[in-house]
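Pair request: fold both.
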Amino acid sequence: MSETWTMRLGEERPVKLPVLAPPAEWRADVSGMQSAVRVRRMWASDPYPDDDQDEDGSSSEQPSMVFMIRGAAPGLEAVVRFVASGGSSPDPREIRISVTR
């Protein structure tokens, strides 16, 4: 899956990926102008139990692995590719990012 984002300098956006069964895990590979963005692995999120439950008590949202991308250098472009390593591997997710002021 490929996406294109335009981000402002200092803007942060989360990227949510499906949680993988161990030993598999996500990694972020940055290409192009690597100084354009900063990528941080944050946490595996759990949906809020009260907010996301259906009437039968089940949650409609699945847990996600969260990465945070920050626009770090204006006028530059980078490609962030999220790839699963180990175990069963879902398709990679690629985001082309342009950073503006």
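--- second member of the pair ---
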Amino acid sequence: MKNNLNIAIPVEKQKVSTDVEHCANFFRFEIDLSKNRVACVTLLDIPPTAIKERIFWLSERCVDMLLFSGINPTINEICAEKGIAVLSGFLEEKPLRAIERYLKNRSTVL
């Protein structure tokens, strides 16, 4: 069983972005699953590429989950190909707030 979960969040103007394809940065949050808390945060400058290459790039950086504010079936399919789970619907939230909400909801189902 894995001890850590790596969640990537596309950001635009310090908020969770709806646009995975065109954002310039992602935050990668490493979650310590045994403590249900953030262990590390890294800012990733993603190269300007097509969406499929972006998802592959995130996969190469050990991302397990993509959390963003939009809904995009194409992104879901590409992520599934690489074994990346997708969570969407985090509208207009700061990335850390979105992670805190995810962790709170996760802890209620453990």
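Observation on the second member. Strands lie at 4-12, 15-16, 25-32, 37-45, 65-68, 85-88.
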